[in-house]
Amino acid sequence: SDKSVQVKLVLLGEAAVGKSSVVLRFVSNEFQANKEPTIGAAFLTQKCRLEDRVLRYEIWDTAGQERFHSLAPMYYRNAQAAVVVYDITKATSLEKAKSWVKELQRQANPNIVIALAGNKVDLVQPSSPSSGGAGSSDAEDEADDATATPGEAATADSESLRQVPLDEAQAYATEAGLLFFETSAKTGEGIVELFTEIAKKIPIE
Ligand code: GTP
Ligand code: MG
User: Fold this and answer.
1) Predicted local distance difference test score (pLDDT) of residue 203
2) Which of 5, 17, 142, 198 is deepest in the core (most CB within 10 A)?
3) Sheet harboring 81-87: ordered strands across?
4) How far is the CA of 112 from the centre of ligand 1 (A)?
C-alpha cells in the first residue's frame, strides 16, 4: 500500500518562464525544446524521497497566459507548497513572480511553503569553462564573432543575457521568506534540490 504523505503543490509564474519544463524535468527527467503553452492547468504526480520519509507531490502546473489568471485560486487553494518561477533572462518575469508571491501570502494557506525559482540558468553559463579563450579559432568562436563586440569573450557574451542578478533575487527571497534556487529545466540544475528542500519544510503530520 502507498503510505506516503500527499502534498499539493502549485506552480505559478509568467507565461514561457518554464513551469511545465521544470515539472517535466522533475517527473520524467526530460526536456522539450519547443514545449507548447499550457491551457488551463496540467496535473502530475511525483514521489520525493527524504532520509526519513517519502512524500507524494500532487502537482498543479498552471497556465501563465494572462487570460488564465482568474483560474489560479482554484489551484493554490489548499496547496501546501508553491513554486513561483521566473526567467533570469527576463526582468519583467521577476516582477510577475513578486505579484504571485503577494497574492499567495494574502490568499493562500497561511502555512504554505513558497519557493522562488529563477529558471533558464543554462542560458548564462558557458558550455565549457575555457570557451572563448584567447587564441582559439574554431568555427564556434567565429560564429560568435559575428554578433559579439570584437575582442569580447564568449563567456561575457552569454552572461549578458542575464537580466536578474543572483544577489538581487536572493535578497528579495530572503526578505519575503521564500526558499530560492536558480534552476535549469534544460540541464536539470537545481530541480531535484528545489523539490527536496520544499519537502523538508513540509510539516510531518
Ligand atoms: P505557460 O504554460 O504558457 O505558462 O509556459 P511555461 O512557464 O510552462 O513554459 P514552458 O515550460 O512551456 O517553456 C517555455 C519555453 O522555454 C519552451 O520552449 C521551453 O523549451 C523553454 N525552456 C523552459 N525551461 C528552460 C530552461 O531551463 N532553459 C532553456 N534554455 N529553455 C527553457
Ligand atoms: Mg506550461
Assistant:
1) 87
2) 17
3) 41-49, 54-62, 5-13, 81-87, 113-119, 179-182
4) 25
